[in-house]
Structure formats: C-alpha cells, structure tokens
Amino acid sequence: MVVRVRVRLKARLSGSTVETIALANSGYEAPSPELVIPAPLADELSLNMADAVEELYEMASGIARVMRVPNALEISVITDDREEGPVIADAIVMDSREPPRS
Question: Could you check whether the bond before residue 31 is cis, i.e. omega within 30 degrees of 0?
Fold first, then answer.
C-alpha cells in the first residue's frame, strides 16, 4: 500500500529547504536511500548538477534517463507531533517534460 508522507527536503550543498509530500512504501527498491524528484524541484533546491551522473531507469512506462546527484539531500519525515530524520539520500532528478524511451 502506497503511503503519502510530508517530508522536509534540504539540499546539503545550498542549504535550501522545501516541504512537500512524498510517496513511501511504493514497492520501489534501491541499494541505498534515494528520492526521485522532478527537475523543477531540483532547481528550487539549487542542487549542484555538476556532480550528477546520468543513468537509465526501468519504469512501468519504459526506460527513463535520470540524473543521480549523490548524497545531495537530507530527508526528514514530518508528522503532527514530531519530525524524524534526517536521512542522507541521493537525488534522482527526472525531467518530466521528456517522455520515457521504450
């Protein structure tokens, strides 16, 4: 079951922060913490794309080209009565304007 949680994202290099909703327990697995974010959010967080590495991700809709920014984010989960975290994670930046390749 997919769960939506409120999170605080902090860019480790720029210090910019954003609160947003993220999907958790979506069945997506990775060897280390990572968060897929749209390119406009990466821009808002001022992520350093000079450190990004291009990768191909297999998705239900096909193959997508993404940019991995290692250890770019601190992620905290926010509830009504507390905040848990942060966890350091890679940012997986996806440009939703570009359609997946088959």
Answer: no
* 96 to 3, 15, 40, 46, 100: CA distances (angstroms): 22, 24, 9, 18, 9
Q: Which residues pair with 38 in a beta bridge?
A: 94
Judge if pTM exceeds 0.90.
no
Could you tell me the residue ranges of all domains in the chain? 3-94
Which tokens hold the place of 67?
């940019």
And the tokens for 25? 């327990």
What are the distances in angstroms from CA 62 to CA 1, 15, 85?
Answer: 23, 34, 33
- For residue 86, is the peptide bond before it cis, meaning its omega torsion is within 30 degrees of 0? yes
Which fold is adopted by the domain 3-94?
Cathepsin D, subunit A; domain 1 (2.40.70)
pLDDT (tens digit per residue) in 11-39: 999 999 999 999 887 667 788 899 999 99
